[in-house]
Amino acid sequence: MGLTDILFGRKKLKEPAADRLFAITTAAVTLDVECGLKPAGVGAVIFKPLSAGEFTQADGDIEELLQSVAAGSGSKLDRQKDSFGFEWIVIHDPELEDQVTAVHAVASELQARGFGGQLLAAAFRFEGGGKPVYWIYGFKTGTFWPFVPTGEKQQRDNARELELKAKLEQELPVEPDLSRWLALYDAPI
Q1: Which domains does the chain have, with CATH numbers?
Q2: What is the rounded CA–CA span in Å between residue 36 and residue 134?
Q3: What is the pTM of this model?
Q4: Which pLDDT value is given to residue 68?
Q5: I want to staple 169 with a disulfide (CB 3.0 to 4.6 A). Which of 130, 142, 151, 174 is the partner?
Q6: Radius of gyration from C-alpha coordinates of the chain
């Protein structure tokens, strides 16, 4: 950020670190064997849409890309908006690798169009142990963190999240700052 950016209040958004996203596919064995978690067949990319016409064009291109990715892998896609105005592109596929590939393709297309700063996170749902477990990937930090909602309104299972962190931090780039562990209550996945 230069002096003129400081003077005029402009801030350059940090670009995403999407390539570290693929680490979740190699950690799937540990998630299964050591944690008892299996992919639930659903993942998503979450981003903040813009109202600019340029974004509308990119959005149309992304839709085409998504349909081609879906056709190639057999995935089903769904788009939803949450209560905060974030757009969710939900990928339904039993194969975790296909979910990650589709999420990466969307993130890459947004970044190529200059909207990488709008990417918030990717989320992958896992089942096992009675409660769903989400592994969330922050595009800005290039790190993962677990999120385990308890089922009670706006509550999370901190002990389980820390246990998962301890078991996976050798295989996944886990966010070390716990205050950055974004919760995705009422996630549409």
Answers
A1: 14-180 (3.30.70.600)
A2: 13
A3: 0.84
A4: 73
A5: 174
A6: 17
